[in-house]
C-alpha cells in the first residue's frame, strides 16, 4: 500500500502571517529585514523555506525552542534600601541599558562598585543581602549616576516633562515610562498613548515590563546591543 503523502506547507499563508505579525509588532523597513535575516536567514519571505518561515513566525509569536533550565538566583533578603537598588537596576533594564535583569547580574555590579569600601580589602561585597551602610549607599549612588548619564531628565523631578500639554510631575515610574516610550519610538516602534498620569504604580510596573520586552525585541531585530544609549548617541 502506498503511504499517504503529506500536504505541502502553505507558504503563501505563512508569508501572510509573517507580514501581519510584523505589522502588529511595529516592524517595518530596515528593522523588519534585519529580523528576517536573523531568524529566517534571508531578506525576503519569498526566499525562505517553510522551515525558515516557521522560525520567523515562532519568534514573532514569542515561541522559543526549549533550552536547559538555568537555576535562577532567588531574591535576596536584606535592608529596605536594597529594594531601591533593585528598582534602579530594573529601570536600566527596561531602558535597554543592561543586558541582564537578574539578581546575579545586579550582585556582580554591586561587588564591583563596593571594591573601594573600607574593610573590603579590594574584593567588594560578594552578596546583596550583606549590603548595608556605606556599601549600599555607594551602590545606589552608582546606579543613580548611571541613569543620570544615559537619561539625564529622569533624576531631576524639578525639571518639567511635558507630554500632550501635561506635566508628568515627579513620579519616578511615570518618568521612566516616558523615557522608555521615547526610546521605543527611536527604534521605530509606535507605542501609542498610555495614560501614564492616571496609572497606579502596579499598572506602571506591568507596562514597563511589557514595553521592556518589546524594546528588547526591537533591539534584537536591529542587531543593537545594550547599552541602547550608545546607539542613540551615534544615531544623533
Q: Concise description?
A:
The chain has helices at residues 11-25, 29-40, 50-60, 81-94, 103-113, 133-150, 172-186, 201-221, 228-235; strands at residues 162-163, 166-167. The protein has 236 residues and is mainly alpha-helical.
How would you characterize this protein structure?
With 236 residues, the chain is mainly alpha-helical. The chain folds into three domains: 11-61; 82-151, no CATH class; 161-235, no CATH class. Helix content is 53%, strand content 2%. The protein has nine helices and two strands, in the order ααααααββααα. It has helices at residues 11-25, 29-40, 50-60, 81-94, 103-113, 133-150, 172-186, 201-221, 228-235; strands spanning 162-163, 166-167. Strands 1-2 form a two-stranded antiparallel ribbon. Strand 1 and strand 2 (166-167) form a beta hairpin. Helix 2 packs across helix 3 (50-60) and helix 4 packs parallel to helix 6 (133-150). The longest helix is centred in the C-terminal third of the chain and has 21 residues, at 201-221. The radius of gyration is 22 Å and the shape is elongated. The N and C termini lie far apart (68 Å). Mean pLDDT is 80; it is low at 1-7 and 64-70. Pfam families: GemA. It comes from Roseospira marina. This is Regulatory protein GemA.
Amino acid at each position: 500500500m502506498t503511504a499517504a503523502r503529506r500536504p505541502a506547507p502553505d507558504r503563501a499563508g505563512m508569508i501572510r502571517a509573517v507580514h501581519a505579525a510584523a505589522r502588529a509588532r511595529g516592524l517595518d523597513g530596515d528593522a523588519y529585514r534585519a529580523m528576517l535575516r536573523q531568524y529566517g536567514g534571508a531578506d525576503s519571505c519569498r526566499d525562505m523555506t517553510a522551515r525558515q518561515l516557521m522560525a520567523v513566525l515562532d519568534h514573532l509569536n514569542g515561541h522559543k525552542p526549549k533550552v536547559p533550565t538555568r537555576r535562577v538566583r532567588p531574591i535576596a533578603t536584606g535592608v529596605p534600601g536594597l529594594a531601591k537598588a533593585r528598582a534602579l537596576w530594573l529601570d536600566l533594564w527596561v531602558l535597554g541599558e543592561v543586558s541582564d535583569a537578574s539578581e546575579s547580574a545586579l550582585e556582580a555590579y554591586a561587588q564591583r562598585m563596593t571594591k573601594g569600601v573600607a574593610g573590603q580589602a579590594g574584593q567588594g561585597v560578594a552578596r546583596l543581602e550583606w549590603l548595608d551602610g556605606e556599601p549600599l549607599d555607594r551602590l545606589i549612588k552608582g546606579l543613580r549616576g548611571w541613569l543620570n548619564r544615559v537619561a539625564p531628565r529622569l533624576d531631576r523631578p524639578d525639571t518639567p516633562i511635558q507630554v500632550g500639554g501635561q506635566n508628568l510631575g515627579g513620579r519616578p515610574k511615570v518618568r521612566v515610562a516616558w523615557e522608555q516610550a521615547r526610546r521605543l519610538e527611536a527604534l521605530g516602534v509606535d507605542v501609542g498613548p498610555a495614560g501614564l498620569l492616571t496609572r497606579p504604580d502596579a499598572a506602571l510596573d506591568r507596562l514597563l515590563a511589557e514595553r521592556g520586552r518589546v524594546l528588547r525585541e526591537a533591539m534584537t531585530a536591529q542587531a543593537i546591543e545594550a547599552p541602547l544609549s550608545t546607539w542613540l548617541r551615534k544615531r544623533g
